[in-house]
């Protein structure tokens, strides 16, 4: 998003966005970083229109925030990998070439996807026992390779099922994790870094997949601007406390508000 006029990013107009989205359905699909952005946007819109009534409810894993006055609904559904995880006789199988949940994504005017954070988990936090693609089943593989295969499956689904005259599709870029090493974790950080790091490997994979698609998917390129915000995480104030500092998610208000300013710019520009 280097081409964005930085002054424009200060001009977020929540009421204008609500009016633009009037009568439309919005869905965020992804992991807890997608939840971070969804929560941020609902708060920004509520602050912009504090007198507008709203409803919030969650059922069967689907969270819905609605502004009845504007006939706008913003939904979030958790799907960390975008492709399927199926429980079979041998255990939980991550199927890199299968999207059975895609039917839930139909009928929306605006879709914002994300995926990456959970691809790196191992041990108890790993959500699968096996990885399958085509006729191959393995216990593990290079996670970047698996991520690329899953993104290609998602891209084929979008190309085959989305009508761009009715639905705009965005992909939240890779949100950096500042807790992968002791040297650069977020504990006690109160200032941003002076410069972003090198391009994130998953960011490169994502950009290559999006470039190869037949349908237009807009990248919310949040990676570099988020890389410098080592000070923006919950840190010891997250659920893990001092023992398991949260250097992955973001405080609200905070960095996800900037992501939504990008989204706002791209929607009304």
UniProtKB/TrEMBL annotation:
Residues 180-199 are annotated as: Disordered. Transmembrane segments: none annotated. InterPro entries: TBL, TBL_C. Coiled coil: none annotated. This is Protein trichome birefringence-like 43. Signal peptide: none annotated. Residues 11-266 form the Trichome birefringence-like C-terminal domain. Belongs to the PC-esterase family. TBL subfamily. The lineage of its organism: Eukaryota, Viridiplantae, Streptophyta, Embryophyta, Tracheophyta. One of its GO terms (molecular function) is O-acetyltransferase activity. PANTHER family: PROTEIN TRICHOME BIREFRINGENCE-LIKE 43, PROTEIN TRICHOME BIREFRINGENCE-LIKE 9-RELATED. GO terms for cellular component: Golgi apparatus.
């Amino acid at each position: 998003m280097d081409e964005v006029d930085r002054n424009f990013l200060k001009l977020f107009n929540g009421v204008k966005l609500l009016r633009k989205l009037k009568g439309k359905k919005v869905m965020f699909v992804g992991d807890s970083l997608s939840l971070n952005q969804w929560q941020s946007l609902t708060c920004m819109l509520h602050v912009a229109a504090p007198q507008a009534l709203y409803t919030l409810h969650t059922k069967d894993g689907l969270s819905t925030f609605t502004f009845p006055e504007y006939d706008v609904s913003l939904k979030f559904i958790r799907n960390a990998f975008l492709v399927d995880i199926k429980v079979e006789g041998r255990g939980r199988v991550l199927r890199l070439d299968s999207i059975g949940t895609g039917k839930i994504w139909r009928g929306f005017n605006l879709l914002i996807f994300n995926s990456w954070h959970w691809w790196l988990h191992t041990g108890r936090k790993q959500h699968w026992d096996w990885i399958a693609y085509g006729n191959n089943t393995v216990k593990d593989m290079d996670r970047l390779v698996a991520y690329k295969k899953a993104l290609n499956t998602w891209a084929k689904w979008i190309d085959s099922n989305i009508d761009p005259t009715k639905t705009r599709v965005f992909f939240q870029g890779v949100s950096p994790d500042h807790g992968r090493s002791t040297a650069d974790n977020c504990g006690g950080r109160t200032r941003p870094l002076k410069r972003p790091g090198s391009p994130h490997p998953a960011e490169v994979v994502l950009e290559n997949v999006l470039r190869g698609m037949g349908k237009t998917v807009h990248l919310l390129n949040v990676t570099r601007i988020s890389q410098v915000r080592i000070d923006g995480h919950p840190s010891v104030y997250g659920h893990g406390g001092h023992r398991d500092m949260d250097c992955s998610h973001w405080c609200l208000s905070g960095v996800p508000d900037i992501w939504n300013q990008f989204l706002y710019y791209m929607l009304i520009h």
